[in-house]
Design brief:
The structure holds two protein chains of two kinds. By secondary structure, chain A is mainly β. Helices cover 0% and strands 51% of the residues of chain A. Chain A has strands at 3-6, 11-14, 19-21, 23-26, 32-38, 44-50, 56-59, 62-65, 75-77, 86-93, 100-102, 106-111. In chain A, the strands form three sheets. In chain A, strands 2, 5, 6, 10, 11 and 12 form a six-stranded mixed β-sheet that branches. Chain A is globular. The model of chain A has no long low-confidence stretch (mean pLDDT 93). Chain B is an all-beta fold. Helix content of chain B is 0%, strand content 52%. Chain B has strands spanning 4-7, 10-13, 19-25, 32-38, 44-51, 57-58, 67-73, 76-81, 90-97, 106-108, 112-116. Chain B starts with a strand and ends with a strand. In chain B, 33% of the residues are buried. The chains are: A mainly beta, B mainly beta.
């Protein structure tokens, strides 16, 4: 079945550091890929998405590229801020199911 | 952007009572809504898919008689936890599918933290 695997956290960085959160997936067909962010005590917000191979999703300085050859969708940001501290979820919607499948989430802590 | 409102944000109840959680799409019509459950420091687990005007589709292992879902209108879905027990304590999150199916996006509510004493 479809699945998503993220790097384990927590990830702790200093402000202005470079961020990478790894995400790989297993799916049949051509899934759509997403990154969602969950701030403390809140629901999930869509951060970015990509719907086909080599697409790059970007928002608020975050980027992720849909790599079909490596089945990956790693999240990157060049310079993180304290306000980026949150839990980040990689997810996919399979072309055959229509259901959103989440990774286990990665907690990011950014220190001043 | 699309807004999904979930109410209440937090509820504490006694064991054996029932609790109703509402999920509303405020500025769009949602024929399909989803209910998730999130345990501490874990990912979201899909409980059921709610379709307006029809019965919900439950995921394997989710008791349909325990978690009653009603999607009576294009903007409202409700989840009722019946005869709640402490093991039902969790964070419940709803989402609504974008009316533009080509976007394949779900918009999430802020979640409801249920504590059963």
């Amino acid at each position: 079945g479809n699945s998503v695997t993220q790097m384990e956290g927590p990830v702790t960085l200093s402000e202005e550091a470079f961020l990478t959160i790894n995400c790989t997936y297993t799916a049949t067909g051509y899934p759509s890929l997403f990154w969602y962010v969950q701030y403390p005590g809140e629901g999930l917000q869509l951060l970015l998405k990509a719907t086909k191979a080599d697409d790059k999703g970007s928002n608020k300085g975050f980027e992720a590229t849909y790599r079909k050859e490596t089945t990956s969708f790693h999240l990157e940001k060049g310079s993180v801020q304290v306000s980026d501290s949150a839990v980040y979820f990689c997810a996919l919607i399979g072309s055959n199911t229509g259901k959103l499948i989440f990774g286990q989430g990665t907690t990011l802590q950014v220190k001043p | 952007g699309a807004v999904v409102s979930q109410h209440p944000s937090r509820v504490i109840c006694k064991s054996g009572t029932s609790v109703k959680i509402e999920c509303r799409s405020l500025d769009f019509q949602a024929t399909t809504m989803f209910w998730y459950r999130q345990f501490p420091k874990q990912s979201l687990m899909l409980m059921a898919t709610s379709n307006e005007g029809s019965k919900a589709t439950y995921e394997q292992g989710v008791e349909k008689d325990k978690f009653l879902i009603n999607h009576a209108s294009l903007t409202l879905s409700t989840l009722t936890v019946t005869s709640a027990h402490p093991e039902d304590s969790s964070f419940y999150i709803c989402s609504a599918r974008s009316p533009d199916l080509a976007k394949n996006i779900q918009y999430f509510g802020a979640g409801t933290r249920l504590s059963v004493l």
